[in-house]
Amino acid sequence: MEEKGLLIVISGPSGVGKGTIIKELFRQEDNLTYSVSVTSRSPRAGEVEGINYFFVVQEKFLEMIDNNEFLEWAKVYSNYYGTPRKFVEQALEEGKNVVLEIDIQGSLQVQKSFPEGIFIFILPPSLAELESRIRGRGTDEEAQILERLGLVQDELKYLPYYDYGVINDQLSAAVEKIKAIIQAERCRISRSQRRVIS
Amino acid sequence: MEEKGLLIVISGPSGVGKGTIIKELFRQEDNLTYSVSVTSRSPRAGEVEGINYFFVVQEKFLEMIDNNEFLEWAKVYSNYYGTPRKFVEQALEEGKNVVLEIDIQGSLQVQKSFPEGIFIFILPPSLAELESRIRGRGTDEEAQILERLGLVQDELKYLPYYDYGVINDQLSAAVEKIKAIIQAERCRISRSQRRVIS
């Protein structure tokens, strides 16, 4: 039913496996495009303008905020990061499905600025499983791990603000579900609710 | 996300291939149940109570209408046919997905009586293609064929009252889409629209 592309927002707690799911999704599916963020920080070695990020000076970034040019933005330490509305809308117009990987707070912003997006919450099989995954990375200290797990419990409260919940118990099953969601949404009659018989 | 089953309403114009799609869907998928209708007509040879229909006398059928026991019902010539709410709800409670094949008018009734259903409209690739299919059956007279094609054009107006539209261009592709819709709907956070950030 859809000729335009869809904005597919993949969100969920840190450590839940969003990145791995998306990587596998792109491996299996054509017609998907990563959303490229704008940032005010300097490029690191090997980073390419328009591929990894769009790099702008801070002054320009603040101007873009004022002009409502972001679907969402955040300041992380002293650097700004944001999702440019124009880039996303252009890709959608070309019929591409744009995938945006983003944390809960960013996703809530996008729900306001782009409610016609498809909002998918990736869930851990259990808090215990998530804990073991975060520990498995071996990059975090004990206090950080406990803080993160507390945060996850808070974040699960935002589930009702999403369209779909996908439990990441097995990578292949989670990817299959997201592919099904994309295929189903392309058959949707209307982005909004169906009309009601009166 | 769903533990209960889903009511999947497969609707669309006569001759569009609903029956063939559903037959193939049942061949490929477990955990699907046909909705069994109640009828006031007499059993034909080989028809089994509870499999083909639930057979009741007309008096009983009219009583069931009065008691709001149908998701939809219709009188065809002198016989009554209806979808029993109790049967559907019991199967859904057991976690089964109930498939209901029904015409447009019946589907509109179900949308009122059971709005949490998933309403799928099967579309012909084109009116020309539909005409050739109806002619291919060889069972209809010219006047009937033209009348039916006019009716289809009218029926397409009801598309906005559905959740999904699936074009039956290739059987396997149409079945894949319906399977994706069922899988996606099982990941839905809520049967109603997502909550909105205020």
Number of domains of chain A: 1
Q: How many β-strand runs of chain A?
A: 9
According to CATH, the fold-level topology of chain A is Rossmann fold
The ordered H/E elements of chain A are: EHEEEHEEHEHEHHEH
Q: CATH-wise, what's the superfamily of chain A?
A: P-loop containing nucleotide triphosphate hydrolases
| Rg over C-alpha atoms of chain A, rounded to the nearest angstrom | 18 Å
Oligomeric organization of the protein chains: homodimer
Assign the CATH class of chain A.
Alpha Beta
Low-confidence stretches of chain A: none
Supply the helix-strand structural class of chain A: alpha/beta
If interface size is counted as residues with C-beta under 8 Å from the partner's C-beta, which chains form the largest one?
A: A-B, 33 and 33 residues
**What is the CATH architecture assignment of chain A?**
3-Layer(aba) Sandwich
Strand content of chain A: 15-25%
| Discrete helix count of chain A | 7
Distance between the termini of chain A: 24 Å
Strand order of the largest sheet of chain A: 2-7-1-8-9
Give structural notes.
Two copies of one chain form a homodimer. By secondary structure, the first copy, chain A, is of the alpha/beta class. Chain A has a single domain (7-186), classed as P-loop containing nucleotide triphosphate hydrolases (Rossmann fold), CATH 3.40.50.300. Chain A is 40% helix and 22% strand. The first copy, chain A, contains seven helices and nine strands; from the N terminus they run E-H-E-E-E-H-E-E-H-E-H-E-H-H-E-H. The first copy, chain A, has helices at residues 18-28, 58-66, 85-93, 104-113, 127-137, 142-155, 171-186; strands at residues 7-11, 32-34, 37-39, 53-55, 70-76, 79-84, 97-102, 118-123, 164-167. In chain A, the strands form two sheets. In chain A, strands 2-7-1-8-9 form a five-stranded parallel β-sheet, with helices on both faces. In chain A, strands 4-3-6-5 form a four-stranded mixed β-sheet. In chain A, strand 5 (70-76) and strand 6 (79-84) form a beta hairpin. In chain A, helix 1 crosses helix 7 and helix 5 (127-137) runs antiparallel to helix 6. The longest helix of chain A is centred in the last third of the chain and has 16 residues, at 171-186. The radius of gyration of chain A is 18 Å and the shape is globular. The relative contact order of chain A is 0.21. The mean pLDDT of chain A is 91. The A-B interface holds A 1, 108, 111-112, 115, 119-121, 159-166, 176-177, 179-181, 183-185, 187-190, 193-197 and B 1, 108, 111-112, 115, 119-121, 159-166, 176-177, 179-181, 183-185, 187-190, 193-197.
